[in-house]
Amino acid sequence: MKVLVLGATGFIGTSVVDSLVKGGHQVLGQSRSESSQLELARREIELVVSDPFNDDKWTEQLDTIDVVIDCIGGNAPIDTGCIKLIKKAEGFKRHATAAKLVYIWTSGVWLHGEDRWNFVTDGTKADHPPEKVAWRPEVEHYLINSTALDGIVIRPGLVYGRSGSVPAMLFAQGANSDKIVWPGTPGGRYATVHVDDLGELYRLAVEKYPLVRGLKIEGSNPSTESVDLILQRTVEISGAKSYIYKTPESPFEVALAATSVVRGTIAKSILGWTPVKPSLVDGLAIYYHAAIASTQK
């Protein structure tokens, strides 16, 4: 299939495009900078230079594209960001003989908010999202109900591995201070997923889209992980002396501190997705050193 990935050079996007290329697909990767061309070309990805929120260059090849994967909507406001991009895709007039365009949007487990006791499934309502991601349910609803697109939503858990993303913030504290200070309270748990396993989930959604169009898919490992244990293991590996919790001080920290006990089934039962990477706790020494190395020249 021919797939356009928006945010192809980002943390999640990089894994998505590499997984698609390995799967034999023709991949176009959107970036705002021409400087990405050589790196993407080396990985057999065609660069599309565009700033999707401010121009329509990324839509110019939509008549030949099978799937658009949006990996850039993490912080964009609804009115000017994510829904705007979806509407651009909806408005493109494809040839009458072409199949409906598939649009996969990246959401996240954070929209479920804090609940340490009740399971979250693929069909669980998201009626108390924290402020940081309070706009996401509306975007999900808009896409899933589109009649012009075959919409699919993927909700990754806390993504780890490689350069680390949010876990890299934790590892940096351990490497550079004696005490790790982390938002939350004892007893919290994270729904997690390795970035490589996540890339495979997107590939499977592309290849089996007729089975999951119109669905919201939880993308996390089968079991959640203890935040207490993650922090303790980071102390042991990094050389920091201790860790403490603090009251969240920003919308980001409130979202990060929340526990969601995710038990998604669609990815496994319909797509055949099986995460293979060690959990964040089990592989923490590997992931710690990978993230620290990513900051060094």
Give descriptors for this structure:
alpha/beta, 11 helices, 7-stranded parallel β-sheet, 297 residues, Rossmann fold, two-stranded parallel ribbon, globular
Structure explained in plain terms:
The protein is built from eleven helices and 15 strands. β2, α2 and β3 form a beta-alpha-beta unit. The chain has a single domain (2-294), classed as Rossmann fold. It is an alpha/beta fold and 297 residues long. It has helices spanning 11-22, 37-42, 82-91, 136-144, 166-176, 195-207, 209-212, 227-238, 251-257, 266-269, 284-294; strands at 2-6, 26-31, 46-49, 67-70, 101-106, 115-120, 149-156, 158-160, 179-183, 189-190, 192-194, 216-219, 225-226, 242-246, 260-262. The strands form five sheets. It has a seven-stranded parallel sheet with strand order 3-2-1-4-5-7-12, sandwiched between helices. Strands 6-15 form a two-stranded parallel sheet. Strands 8-11 form a two-stranded parallel ribbon.
What's the layout of helices and strands?
Layout: E1 2-6, H1 11-22, E2 26-31, H2 37-42, E3 46-49, E4 67-70, H3 82-91, E5 101-106, E6 115-120, H4 136-144, E7 149-156, E8 158-160, H5 166-176, E9 179-183, E10 189-190, E11 192-194, H6 195-207, H7 209-212, E12 216-219, E13 225-226, H8 227-238, E14 242-246, H9 251-257, E15 260-262, H10 266-269, H11 284-294
Parallel strand pairs: 1-2, 1-4, 2-3, 4-5, 5-7, 6-15, 7-12, 8-11, 9-14
Antiparallel strand pairs: 10-13
Helix pairs in contact: 1-6, 5-8
In short:
This protein is α/β, with parallel strands linked by helices.
Average pLDDT number = 95
In quaternary terms, these chains amount to single chain
| Sequence of strands across the biggest β-sheet | 3-2-1-4-5-7-12
Q: How many domains comprise the coordinates?
A: 1
- CATH fold title: Rossmann fold
CATH 4th-level superfamily: NAD(P)-binding Rossmann-like Domain
Q: Provide the succession of SSEs.
A: EHEHEEHEEHEEHEEEHHEEHEHEHH
Overall shape? globular
Level-1 CATH class name? Alpha Beta
Characterize the largest beta sheet: strand count, sense, and whether it forms a barrel. Answer: 7 strands, parallel
- Which segments are poorly predicted (pLDDT under 50) over 5 or more consecutive residues? none
Radius of gyration: 19 Å
Measured by DSSP, the beta-strand proportion falls in 15-25%
